[in-house]
Amino acid sequence: MSYIALLFASAFEITWVALLGNHAVIKSRLDLITLCLCMGLSLYFLNIASKTLPIAITYAVWVGIGILGQALLQHFFKASLSLLSWVFVFTLTLSLLGLLLSQANDGVIL
Predict the structure, then answer these.
(1) What residue segments make up the domains of the chain, in order of their start?
(2) pLDDT tens, position by position, 85-97
(3) Per-residue model confidence as pLDDT tens digits over 13-66
(4) Are 67 and 92 in contact, with CB atoms under 8 Å apart?
(5) CB 98 within 8 Å of CB 57
(6) Coil, strand, or helix at residue 86?
(7) Four-CA torsion 36, 79, 74, 33, nearest 10 degrees
(8) Distances from the Cα of 72 to the Cαs of 46, 66, 67, in angstroms?
(9) Burial of 15 (0-12, 13-18, 19+ CB in 10 A)
(10) Quick one: how far is CA 3 from the chain centroid?
């Protein structure tokens, strides 16, 4: 359940950060309301995930998935990142997987 909550938290984080950039240009009230709703839901699901997973792992995965999601959104809808930037995003993704897999040794099962 915690990992599902963490995925929802990350998805809402990706959404609100994307809306944040959109709101700077469009400035509609609907975008602002949706942004605030997604931000609140992201923190709500992060809170659920952090009740059973270590907060350091939970926060790192939440931010890392958000960075990966923003990089992918930017790649498909805006200018692509440089090759060096993709190398670091890939390294970050591998590090997150390592953090999650290391928790399996501590009794937390994926």
Answers:
(1) 2-104
(2) 889 989 988 988 8
(3) 999 988 887 766 767 788 888 889 999 999 999 999 999 888 888 898 899 899
(4) yes
(5) no
(6) helix
(7) 10
(8) 22, 10, 9
(9) buried
(10) 12
